[in-house]
Amino acid sequence: MTPPYLLLDIDGVLIPFPAADGSTPPTHVRHSVLPTGRRPDDPVSIWLDPSHGGLLTDLLTSGLITPVWCTSWRKDATTIIGPLLGLPDFPYLDLPRPQITTSHPHGYLWKRDHVDVWLADAPAIWIDDDFAGLDHAWAAERTARGTPTLLVQPDPHFGLQPEHLTELTTWATQLPTARAV
Ligand SMILES: [Mg+2]
């Protein structure tokens, strides 16, 4: 049996939003990075929690899930973010680049139509800080028709917490398709 996909966002999840005063969590280490297409003299400052490296690696190598990046970092997730956290290599979704001014252009997360087609009938766990009510309804509908779907939505100011990983691990373990670990 194929383990469920784990779709993983970055902004608001691995890189929490800064506080109003611009500060970032003391748990997170700052890095200066150069995303694809960025001018070399114009790097971007990001912050990552080194403890996420070990926690995520344990999950990624558990066999319980099949990881895929689902982020506007796209390929840079695999070449910049993953390596900074020491994560094993895994694929990314080549999300479209819609001309939008809101992350919910149709009342739901802009990534969802692409994800929905890509997943087809595969069970999935999706971690993103930006789901709308319609996304939760979509997940409930998928689940109701026999495609287990779990949305995990961290608070973007705190990002991914160990409890989120505990929750999804418990969920994946209880799936009928789960392998004994
Ligand atoms: Mg996000």
UniProtKB/TrEMBL annotation:
Look up the domain of life of the source. Bacteria
Query: Pfam families attached here?
Result: HAD_SAK_2 (PF18143)
Quote the protein name from its UniProt record: Secreted protein
Native source species: Streptomyces halstedii
